[in-house]
Amino acid sequence: MESLLDRWLWRQEYWLPPGVTWADMVETESVQYPQPRDLLITLPLSLVFIAARYAFERLVALPLSWKMGVRDTTRPVLAVQNVTLEVFYKQQSRSPSQSQFHSLSKQCDLSQRQIERWFRLRRNQDRPSNSKKFCEACWRFTFYMIAFLAGLAVLVDKPWFWDPSECWVGYPQQPLQTSQYWYYMTELAFYWSLLLRVSFDVKRKDFKEQVIHHIATIFLMGFSYCANYIRVGTLVLLVHDASDYLLESAKMFNYAGWRRVCDSLFFVFTAVFLVTRLVVFPSKVLYTTWYLSMESFQPFFGYYFFNALLLVLQLLHVFWALLILRMVWKFVVQGRVERDERSDEEENHTEEEEEEEEETRWERRKCTFDSKLPSLANNCVFNNLTNQRNGTPSRQPKAR
């Protein structure tokens, strides 16, 4: 197995530029280089993050949401209990196709429109509450804020922070510093925790893009660590953390109903996002990895692979920038930020469906009333008989 890995995975042509071998990367007591085995610590560390998040959301974020006025007032209309539809909803699909609707209609002896309405109501039941969304945003805000401040503390005295061309001085024989190691491992473990929890978190319209982003980030960080792209990798992390905490803070105030604070933070976030992701990232990071790096070594597999992952991130930046600019346009037209364009809101109702829901509510009230009617009638009859025996005339009108 070891010889197979050395032959196919750890070939120096993949990881090191031409003219450099693994023998040139031998560690000494005073010089430490990144090793692939170091990445193993990120998996148990990601579980620590998940446990810390669980405690944080319940002990800190949830009480904070109450103090900030987060309320879960809207309750969706409950779907009528149906075992067949419930099994299909949980085990197969939450949004059946037309053929599946037709099949379910025959199995349940219901019209296709009733089946479609049941699935719509059932999906709305699973919509997350404002408290849950606030807790998630509060957790990410806390991490991104701490990570951004820690990244500044790690990089502010480094020469490549001010001049990106310094990322390639002496590459790949660049010693690994303890602060860089923990900065990298902490960020990588956090993204592992996001990927492991993405199926349980609030699902938004860009769910697939989020998964791609997390996977690309993990591959990017893992490969850059093994190939000793530490310096440029820390710049990538800092650029991303610079705007993320602003977005999460705006979400927190949005869920709390603080509209003016939310709108102000959103515009600050928009400005920082557009500058860091669409200006700084391509002009500094991409430029130094594509062009300035060629002044220190010749292209190799790692060079193309690393830049390909950076381009994937840049495409995602453009995608999210379009969503953000769409929200800004709505603010200009409507006067305020409506909501996060990525949010998975309750599905819209047509007028006929609203009438059906009103009929459903009335039928439920009618069933409740009908169940209580016999006992009410018996009480009335008993009272009348009692009044007649006592010789007292009934005060109730005969029409009743």
From TrEMBL:
<comment type="pathway">
    <text>Sphingolipid metabolism.</text>
</comment>
<keyword id="KW-0808">Transferase</keyword>
<keyword id="KW-0256">Endoplasmic reticulum</keyword>
<dbReference type="Pfam" id="PF03798">
    <property type="entry name" value="TRAM_LAG1_CLN8"/>
</dbReference>
<comment type="pathway">
    <text>Lipid metabolism; sphingolipid metabolism.</text>
</comment>
<dbReference type="InterPro" id="IPR001356">
    <property type="entry name" value="HD"/>
</dbReference>
<feature type="transmembrane region" description="Helical">
    <location>
        <begin position="301"/>
        <end position="329"/>
    </location>
</feature>
<keyword id="KW-0443">Lipid metabolism</keyword>
<keyword id="KW-1133">Transmembrane helix</keyword>
<feature type="transmembrane region" description="Helical">
    <location>
        <begin position="137"/>
        <end position="156"/>
    </location>
</feature>
<keyword id="KW-0812">Transmembrane</keyword>
<keyword id="KW-0539">Nucleus</keyword>
<dbReference type="InterPro" id="IPR006634">
    <property type="entry name" value="TLC-dom"/>
</dbReference>
<protein>
    <submittedName>
        <fullName>CERS2 synthase</fullName>
    </submittedName>
</protein>
<feature type="transmembrane region" description="Helical">
    <location>
        <begin position="181"/>
        <end position="200"/>
    </location>
</feature>
<feature type="domain" description="Homeobox">
    <location>
        <begin position="85"/>
        <end position="129"/>
    </location>
</feature>
<dbReference type="InterPro" id="IPR009057">
    <property type="entry name" value="Homeodomain-like_sf"/>
</dbReference>
<dbReference type="InterPro" id="IPR016439">
    <property type="entry name" value="Lag1/Lac1-like"/>
</dbReference>
<keyword id="KW-0472">Membrane</keyword>
<keyword id="KW-0238">DNA-binding</keyword>
<feature type="region of interest" description="Disordered">
    <location>
        <begin position="342"/>
        <end position="362"/>
    </location>
</feature>
<feature type="compositionally biased region" description="Acidic residues">
    <location>
        <begin position="343"/>
        <end position="360"/>
    </location>
</feature>
<keyword id="KW-0371">Homeobox</keyword>
<dbReference type="Pfam" id="PF00046">
    <property type="entry name" value="Homeodomain"/>
</dbReference>
<feature type="transmembrane region" description="Helical">
    <location>
        <begin position="261"/>
        <end position="281"/>
    </location>
</feature>
<feature type="DNA-binding region" description="Homeobox">
    <location>
        <begin position="87"/>
        <end position="130"/>
    </location>
</feature>
<feature type="domain" description="TLC">
    <location>
        <begin position="132"/>
        <end position="333"/>
    </location>
</feature>
